[in-house]
From TrEMBL:
This is Beta-ketoacyl-ACP reductase. The keyword Oxidoreductase applies. It comes from Deinococcus aquiradiocola. PANTHER family: 3-OXOACYL-(ACYL-CARRIER-PROTEIN) REDUCTASE, 3-OXOACYL-[ACYL-CARRIER-PROTEIN] REDUCTASE FABG. InterPro entries: NAD(P)-bd_dom_sf (IPR036291), SDR (IPR050259), SDR_fam (IPR002347). Belongs to the short-chain dehydrogenases/reductases (SDR) family. The keyword Ion transport does not apply. One of its GO terms (molecular function) is oxidoreductase activity.
Length: 254
């Protein structure tokens, strides 16, 4: 019996936050599977364009596109730009998020809570409203939201982040039911504290590692591998799921 391969040839993926720590490896992995890739960025134009050059060298089509994914007009303009260069995305990976300083509920600025709502909840709503109708018309599509293990941990100082990501979870679960009849799947990938190009593994992470059943931290590639799987036909009957990539650090329960 021959092995199974993740084959995304003929598919177009759009990754928001595509030039970021986890996003850039998602883009590379989707491209290695044969997908054409639209790399979204907000401010990191140089990083996005450098990544596009790298992806094109592998033989796929790629294009960088700028937008504030919390603004309806920007998301619509991004759709038009991607369509003009590459076509309508078959796969959207909602990965971008606003960064902020974590502090206690009693100290956290309302602005931070609002920012997390916009980048976690509204981001996913706008991406769905803008890109899913074309998927429905084709009868095939993938929506992949990047959530976090923090949604299940409720750790002190993470309230704004957890609130935004839990709201995102609700939106995507409802969306999965609404668009399933047109064979559009909707799933979430929830990374733990991953190692990436700019996030190393050192002694400050020893307590975290001890709490992980596998006794180690995962990598950005571990997250990208699940994204690629969910984007493929191998995952055609998987929808509405929240899947942790944390070495068992969190275990979503029934």
């Amino acid at each position: 019996m021959s092995g199974m391969n993740i084959d995304l040839h003929g598919r177009l993926a759009l990754v928001t936050g595509g030039s970021g720590q986890l996003g850039r490896v998602m883009c590379r992995t989707l491209a290695r599977c044969g997908a054409d890739v639209a790399v979204h960025y907000h401010r990191n134009r140089e990083g996005a364009e450098g990544l596009v050059t790298e992806l094109r060298a592998t033989g796929v089509r790629a294009h960088a596109v700028q937008a504030d994914v919390t603004l309806p007009a920007d998301v619509r303009a991004m759709r038009d730009a991607v369509n003009a260069q590459l076509g309508d995305p078959d796969i959207i990976v909602n990965n971008a998020v606003i960064q902020f300083a974590w502090t206690s509920v009693l100290q956290q600025s309302p602005h931070d809570f609002e920012g997390q709502f916009r980048s976690s909840v509204l981001h996913n709503v706008l991406m769905a409203q803008t890109f899913v109708p074309a998927m429905q018309a084709r009868g095939w599509g993938r929506v992949i939201g990047i959530n976090t293990e923090c949604s299940l941990q409720n750790t002190p100082t993470q309230a704004a982040y957890v609130a935004g990501k839990r709201g995102m979870d609700g939106v995507l679960r409802v969306l999965a039911r609404e668009v399933g009849p047109q064979q559009v799947t909707v799933n979430q990938v929830a990374p733990g504290w991953m190692i990436s190009e700019d996030v190393s593994d050192d002694d400050t992470a020893s307590a975290y590692r001890e709490g992980v059943p596998l006794r180690r931290r995962g990598t950005d590639q571990d997250v990208a591998n699940l994204v690629a799987f969910l984007a493929s036909d191998l995952a055609a009957f998987i929808s509405g799921q929240f899947i942790s990539v944390s070495g068992g650090n969190v275990m979503p329960a029934i």
